[in-house]
Design brief:
The complex is a heterotrimer of chains A (288), B (266) and C (359). With 288 residues, chain A is mainly α. In chain A, 75% of the residues lie in helices and 0% in strands. The chains are: A mainly alpha (288), B mainly alpha (266), C alpha+beta (359).
């Protein structure tokens, strides 16, 4: 679309009715996003550089970016995001191809398992994982019964539990965008490449991977931004031991009543998200 | 050889993925029939007592109604506003349509908790203290990006000459939208409606900063129950919601096909 | 109502998009039952004119009258036109029969009548057995027929085809050209057919409108268009030709004497002496040998292309001029490459066009 607009001869367009109608169409959405999203975030930016008396200060950022503890907190968030995204991607990408080949009731069943978890509250699912991962929980019981381990492994309130839970909760957001692209992949491209003498590995690297890249970018960006800022999952599955930016923000607002600091932590988290959005937009832009 | 092995790996991962996703749901369902207040698996019997208790949870009904109201209303409003915006963006009659699209979709990737505290301060500053309305507009920001994302993707694949064809065959403009565009976009409508409903109904990080003692949304109530006295009542409630969603999914599969819905979810 | 009565009258229609003039004072009158083709290069405004007639892109100025009614400002759904779109624009969520019934349904036609009309329309395009099929389960040719059936089912005052056959392969396209022609005569439809394929235009139509840069350059029956092109553009766009540049040295009674690199030639045309012109003729007018009272030129054969019933001979006449001759298969003597030959052609079939108009 943009291509066509750009390549059309440069003419001064008359203010036509279609354009006015289009403006009217986007107006409500833009208004909502501007007033209830952009403005509050701008205000947050302001609050983050105010001290408790309302004077300007950089103290919150200095504290956040200058103390090892808070640098560790930031790293914890990033680590959670990176690990969750990586694992989710490694599972989802190949699985999406199988999903795209499935037909009939099998396809419906597999797809239903992607949609259904969205209906269970994150809180309840996280709680289900605490049941599963307990020392006397299902997983330990099964592992012992199978003779794989002798004594129960401690999993709950460990990073393993955190990552398993986070992957489980955010997986559908990785699979769905990739599936949407893979399902539309025209098998003829791969065939054409093969007739041109490309080996399966080359076909994959040169044809399939580039063609599915938009789905990968969408899934990775979504899962990373969701998991880096997850709040319920770390709270329920690991607790105080693994402080993240999200839990720090919540504590600053709900317990410590330190909005300036909470706002600064929020701005840092926001900045991470903005980088993700910017990167994904940049990467998925069609090459000119 | 190599491709065959790759296909096997794909299938194993797909089946494993499905089981992994269903596992916690199965645990919830099983726990809801637990005869004792502790979730012991395997179950030592079955009981429906927790289902009977759902309605007697402290503050359950007001929270359920509040969450339902907010979810349904914000989804409906987002569907209208988001679809209109997507039409304008997909038709490309606007300068900077792509950037506008990014703006409308971006809240999806912004940390909910940060939006929550930002809104808390913002509403306080402009003196907007009505909890219900504050929740509603905040949830619009949660739901609108889902609709905008799905509808822009769906509409950019929609062939607008179908509208012209319908018009030359005797439909008014509005008539052709209803008769041609709506059916073609039904999967996108369904999936974005479903996603926004669930996103709003399950939202915790934004709502937590906007509710007061008297009006708590269901997820906030649920976390409170879990922290105060965890018993299988919540599992029973979740199982009911899951069963309802399963029915919705079966109907959607019959009507438009889950693969068409999933295919538009990019 | 007489067959010859004007049925669609387009007068002075102009259309601009921004600063670009896409249609410029187009006049076109089409009789009832006539099939007119709009022929022209890409971007010349064919689709825009069709959309103006359908009401999808109302003209800035000018009027359009259809079946005795001024429809210039009537919205598309009240015009009673039938359009077959280039990509067919079939509704994917409806069956074949659902697509064909669509127009009648929105008109509120009683169900029994709709069923009858759908059956008739599908039988007409020989798809009576596929009514229940989904659109996605049809071949390209079948989709084309469904689109046609959908358009004729509402018994439109005019049928509009925008490159309706261009997506089909060559063999199917040629079959459809003949069949469509027969079918349109059978239902006595008035039709406008947009194409940039000259063979299609010549095969299908009663008259051809050659369009260039938003104007109609010539409107004529296929035979006349070929034999008497009104402009260099029309000459170039339809069929092959020999073209030689030169200078007018004498003019009299609609004939001009032109000095060219291949010698003095006579041609039909009205120009002042001194004017730069292009002298042109059709290849089948050229005959081997000299002929008193005819134009003639000599040169060396550059290539000979055998095409079954005919042979094309390209001759280098020197000074950048070349001759293109088409010899029928019956001609005993066909020159070979590098032969020195002389060709002659009748003065009455030689035309002069203003040189500036060369594209
Ligand atoms: N909606 C529009 N906005 C701006 N310019 C347009 C629009 N529609 C058509 N044009 C321009 O008008 C000119 C004529 O377009 P039109 O589609 O009528 O050409 P056409 O003769 O049908 O060409 P083709 O054979 O390629 O289909 C083109 O230069 C095109 O770019
Ligand atoms: Mg065209």
């Amino acid at each position: 679309m943009t291509e066509a607009v750009l390549s059309a001869p440069v003419v001064k367009p008359a203010p036509d009715r279609e354009r006015l109608a289009a403006l009217g169409f986007v107006a409500p959405s833009v208004l909502i996003i501007a007033v209830v999203f952009v403005l509050p975030l701008a205000l947050l930016l302001g609050v983050s550089v105010l001290d408790s008396k309302g004077g300007p200060t950089t103290a919150h950022y200095v504290r956040l970016l200058g103390t090892p503890y808070y640098l560790g907190v930031i790293w914890n968030s990033l680590r959670l995001g990176l690990l969750t995204t990586l694992i989710a991607f490694v599972i989802s990408y190949p699985a999406a191809f199988a999903l795209a080949r499935a037909r009939g009731p099998l396809r419906s069943a597999l797809l239903a398992t992607l949609f259904l978890p969205l209906a269970a509250s994150v809180i309840v699912k996280a709680f289900a994982w605490t049941i599963l991962l307990r020392s006397d929980g299902l997983i330990n019981t099964v592992l012992i019964a199978l003779g794989i381990i002798e004594d129960p492994i401690r999993m709950i309130f460990t990073q393993t539990a955190l990552i398993i839970g986070a992957v489980n909760i955010f997986l559908p957001f990785m699979v769905l965008p990739i599936y949407a692209v893979v399902a539309q992949l025209d098998g003829r491209y791969a065939e054409a490449a093969a007739t041109l003498g490309a080996s399966p590995a080359v076909v994959f690297l040169r044809v399939i991977l580039p063609l599915t890249l938009p789905g990968i970018i969408a899934g990775v960006a979504l899962v990373f931004s969701l998991s880096v800022s997850a709040y319920v999952v770390p709270t329920l599955l690991i607790g105080e031991k693994y402080p993240t930016l999200a839990t720090t923000i919540a504590k600053a607002y709900l317990l410590a009543r330190d909005p300036g600091f909470g706002a600064a932590a929020g701005v840092v988290l926001l900045a991470i998200a903005v980088v993700v959005v910017a990167l994904s937009t940049l990467l998925s832009r069609e090459p000119k | 050889m190599m491709t065959r092995a790759a296909i096997v790996v794909c299938w194993v991962l797909a089946i494993g993925l499905a089981l992994f996703l269903v596992l916690p749901l199965a645990v919830i369902a099983a726990a809801s029939f637990s005869p004792t207040p502790v979730f012991d698996l395997p179950l030592s019997g079955a009981s429906l007592r927790w289902y009977g208790r759902i309605g007697r949870l402290d503050g359950f009904w007001p929270s359920l109604f509040l969450s339902l109201q907010i979810a349904l209303l914000s989804t409906a409003l987002s569907l209208v506003a988001g679809t209109l915006a997507a039409i304008a963006i997909a038709r490309g009659k606007l300068p900077g349509a792509t950037a506008l699209g990014t703006l409308l979709v971006s809240p999806l990737m912004m940390p909910g908790l940060v939006l929550g505290i930002a809104l808390l301060q913002y509403f306080r500053m402009i003196g907007f203290t009505a909890t219900w309305s504050a929740l509603l507009v905040a949830h619009l920001v949660v739901t609108l990006p889902y609709v905008a994302r799905t509808m822009i993707a769906g509409l950019s694949r929609f062939d607008f000459t179908l509208i012209e064809a319908a018009r030359t065959l005797g439909c008014t403009y509005a008539g052709s939208v209803i008769r041609v565009m709506v059916p073609a976009l039904a999967p996108s409508f369904l999936i974005s409606g479903l996603f926004s409903l669930l996103a709003s109904f399950d939202n915790y990080p934004v709502s937590i900063f906007l509710t007061d003692v008297r009006s708590k949304t269901l997820p906030i109530r649920m976390l409170q129950y879990i922290e105060e006295a965890p018993d299988p009542t919540l599992a029973a409630l979740s199982t009911l919601i899951l069963a309802g969603t399963l029915v919705l999914l079966l109907i959607s599969d019959r009507l438009v096909g889950l693969h068409r819905m999933a295919g538009t979810a990019d | 109502m007489s067959e010859a009565a004007p049925h669609l009258v387009i007068s002075g229609v102009s259309k601009r998009y921004g600063a670009a003039t896409v249609l410029e004072r187009v006049d076109l009158t089409i009789r009832r039952g006539e099939l007119v083709t709009l022929l022209g290069p890409s971007g010349c405004g064919k689709t825009t004119l069709l959309r103006a007639i359908a009401g999808l892109a109302p003209p800035d100025t000018g009027t359009i009258a259809l079946a005795g009614r001024d429809v210039t400002h009537v919205p598309p759904h009240r015009r009673n036109v039938g359009v077959v779109f280039q990509n067919y624009a079939l509704f994917p969520h409806l069956t074949v029969a659902g697509n064909v019934a669509f127009g009648l349904k929105v008109r509120g036609t009683p169900k029994a009548e709709i069923d009858l009309a759908v059956r008739r329309a599908l039988a007409l395009v020989k798809l009576g057995h596929l009514g229940g099929r989904r659109i996605s389960a049809l071949s390209g040719g079948q989709q084309q027929r469904v689109a046609l059936a959908r358009a004729i089912a509402v018994e439109p005052d005019v049928l509009l085809f925008d490159e309706a056959l261009s997506a089909l392969d060559r063999k199917l396209r040629e079959e459809m050209q003949v069949e469509l022609r027969r079918l349109l005569q059978e239902v006595k439809a008035t039709a406008i057919f947009v194409t940039h394929d000259q063979d299609e235009a010549l095969t299908m139509s009663d008259r051809v409108a050659v369009m260039n840069k938003g104007r109609i350059e010539q409107l004529a029956a296929p035979r006349e268009l070929y034999a008497r092109p009104a402009s260099l553009f029309a000459l170039n766009f339809v069929g092959l030709s020999t073209r030689i540049a030169g200078q007018v040295v004498g003019a009299q009674d609609g004939m001009v004497e032109v000095v060219t690199p291949v010698g003095r030639l006579s041609a039909r045309g009205a120009f002042q002496p001194g004017a730069s012109v292009i002298v042109a003729t059709r290849p089948e007018q050229l005959r081997l040998g000299a002929d008193a009272g005819a134009n003639s030129a000599a040169g060396r054969v550059r290539s000979v292309v055998f095409q079954g019933s005919r042979t094309l001979v390209d001759v280098d006449a020197g000074a950048g001029a070349s001759l293109l001759a088409e010899l029928s298969g019956r001609e005993a003597e066909v020159p070979r490459v590098h032969d020195e030959v002389r060709f002659a052609w009748p003065v009455a079939e030689t035309f002069a066009f203003a040189a500036e108009a060369a594209p």
